[in-house]
Specification:
Blueprint lengths: L26 E5 L10 H8 L3 E4 L5 H4 L7 E4 L2 E2 L2 E2 L3 H13 L4 E5 L9 H11 L3 E4 L4 H9 L11 E6 L12 H4 L4 E6 L5 H10 L7 E6 L7 E6 L3 H7 L6 E5 L6 H6 L7
Parallel strand pairs: 1-6, 1-7, 2-3, 2-6, 8-9
Antiparallel strand pairs: 4-5, 9-12, 10-11, 10-12
Length: 273
C-alpha cells in the first residue's frame, strides 16, 4: 500500500463525523531558499514553526527542517536526477488528497516555488480543485549563487538583462531552448540543472554567436559552507567541470559579469573559491 493510501495521513483535521463533508485544508507553498537557513524569509520561518504536516523536497536542508515542530508529521517527496520518490503527478495527487481530507499542510520546496520549482503546477492544481492556498516566495538559487560567489547578476558595464533558463534538455534534445535568445550579448544567463548538459550548453551558445572566450562559471551548493566556484570560459568550462568533478546541485552562469568574480570574491569573506 502506498503512503498516499495510508489512513494515518488522511485523518480529518476537524474531527468531523463519518459521512460529514470536511472543509478542505489550507495549503501553504513555501520557498526554502537556496540552502543557507539564514536566508529563509521571516514569514516562511513562522509558518514552518506552526506547521503540523509538511511535504518537503530533496534540496531542503536539515537546518530548515529543524524549524518544524517535533510533533509535526513530515513526508519526503524529493526528486533527484533519475530518482523520484514520487513523480510530480503523484505529489500533486497526495497534496490534494490530504487537503481534501481537511488537513492543512506546508508544501516546502527548495529555492523559490515559482522558479523552476514546479510550484506553478501545484498551485494550479490547488486552484482547479478549489483548495485554498498561499505562496511564500524564497530566494531563488541564482540570487544566492550570484551574491555568495561574487558574481553580480546585472552590472551596468556588463549586463542589463538577466535570463533564467533550464539546462534540463531531456537527453539529446538540443533544440529545447531558444539558443539565439540565450546567446545575445550584454546579458547574464543562469542555467538551472545544467551540470549534465554543460557541454551542450557551451557548444550551442558559441554556435549561436557568443564568443568562445565569454566568461562562464559553475557554482556548486550555493550559499552553503562547502560552496565551490569554478570559473572559466565557454570554451574551457566543460573540461574544468570534469577536472574538478563538479556535481549537482549547481548553477551555470554565463556572461561578462563572471569576469568580476575574482576581484569581488577576494573582498568578500563569505565567498568560497
Amino acid at each position: 500500500m502506498s503512503f498516499m493510501d495510508d489512513p494515518q495521513w488522511l485523518t480529518p483535521a476537524h474531527g468531523a463525523a463519518p459521512g460529514t463533508t470536511v472543509p478542505a485544508g489550507f495549503v501553504t507553498l513555501v520557498g526554502a531558499g537556496p540552502g543557507d537557513p539564514d536566508l529563509l524569509t521571516v514569514k516562511a520561518a513562522r509558518v514552518l514553526r506552526q506547521a503540523s504536516l509538511v511535504l518537503y523536497d530533496h534540496l531542503v536542508g536539515e537546518q530548515v527542517l529543524g524549524l518544524v515542530p517535533a510533533s509535526a508529521e513530515r513526508i519526503y517527496v524529493g526528486k533527484e536526477s533519475s530518482c523520484h520518490t514520487l513523480p510530480q503527478e503523484g505529489i500533486i495527487e497526495l497534496m490534494c488528497k490530504l487537503a481534501r481530507s481537511g488537513r492543512s499542510l506546508v508544501r516546502l520546496k527548495g529555492g523559490d516555488c515559482y522558479v523552476f520549482g514546479r510550484g506553478g503546477e501545484e498551485a494550479l492544481a490547488l486552484a482547479e480543485a478549489g483548495i485554498p492556498f498561499d505562496v511564500i516566495p524564497g530566494i531563488t538559487a541564482a540570487q544566492g549563487a550570484g551574491a555568495c560567489a561574487g558574481i553580480p547578476l546585472t552590472h551596468r558595464d556588463h549586463a542589463g538583462t538577466l535570463v533564467l533558463a533550464t539546462g534540463h534538455l531531456r537527453g539529446t534534445n538540443e533544440s529545447a531552448l531558444d539558443w539565439p535568445l540565450l546567446a545575445r550579448p550584454r546579458q547574464t544567463v543562469v542555467f538551472y540543472m545544467g551540470v549534465a548538459t554543460l557541454p551542450t550548453i557551451c557548444t550551442q551558445l558559441v554556435a549561436h554567436g557568443l564568443p568562445a572566450q565569454t566568461p562562464a562559471a559553475i557554482v556548486e551548493r550555493a550559499t552553503m559552507p562547502d560552496q565551490r566556484v569554478t570559473t572559466g570560459t565557454l570554451a574551457s568550462l566543460p573540461q574544468l567541470a570534469i577536472d574538478r568533478a563538479v556535481r549537482a546541485p549547481a548553477l551555470v552562469i554565463v556572461g561578462g559579469v563572471v569576469s568580476l568574480q575574482k576581484k569581488l570574491s577576494q573582498g568578500q569573506a563569505r565567498a568560497v573559491t
